[in-house]
Amino acid sequence: MRRVLITGCPGAGKSTAARRLSEITGLPLIHLDLHYWKPGWVRPESAEWRETVRELTAQPSWIMDGNYGGTLDLRLAAADTLIHLDFSTFVCASRVLRRAFSGLGNVRPGEFVDGCPERLDWPFFRFVLTYRQRSRARDLERMQGFRGSVHRFETPNQLELFLERTGSDAPPSPAVLPAGEPGSR
Predict the structure, then answer these.
(1) Which residues are within 8 A (CB) of 80 and not within 5 positions of it... i.e. 6 or more apart?
(2) Tell me: domain 3-169, CATH 3.40.50.300, correct?
(3) What residues does each domain of the chain span?
(4) Entry pTM
(5) What is the structure's pLDDT at 177?
(6) What is the pLDDT of residues 82-106, one digit of tens each?
(7) How far apart are CA 136 and CA 132, in angstroms?
(8) Measured between alpha carbons, how far is 185 from 28 in angstroms, rounded to an integer?
(9) Residue 151: beta bridge partners?
(10) For residues 76 and 5, is the Cβ–Cβ distance under 8 A?
(11) Is 108 exposed, middle or buried (0-12, 13-18, 19+ CB in 10 A)?
(12) Contact, 22 vs 81, CB < 8 A?
């Protein structure tokens, strides 16, 4: 487990799982949201984004969280481990609402750039509500040919057990460098 990709519906807890797994394993953490969004919630051009993902996936080791279906092919080709958080719509929607209301107007440090405060907009929430009907089958089809180790969890409890087991099997993690230090990500 050197290149771990964590996918799933928004609100499933990809960033939290990635952060915890990074702490357990000592692998560098890459939040795709931090690299995707520009201040003011501006999207990059498609070609620019694919190049960014190519550069990120070229690193020797990582834990990468995020959806971004347009680059899933690149990430799957580079990963050796896939963690798919296949949680219910209720779990994801309730987590999105809780996150939005508890952090409204604040930027999640380390996950988004300054200028991208927490918000809840209808198109995003509608995507969460319809993910299982509109996007899940497409994502599962894309994941089908993945040749690495696959871990699919349907409940937060299943994920929690996996993280606990991984933590008990993992060697002590090396010190994490603060952001901006040489070698940090």
Answers:
(1) 1, 2, 3, 4, 148, 149
(2) yes
(3) 3-169
(4) 0.88
(5) 32
(6) 999 999 999 999 999 998 888 877 8
(7) 5
(8) 7
(9) 83
(10) yes
(11) middle
(12) no
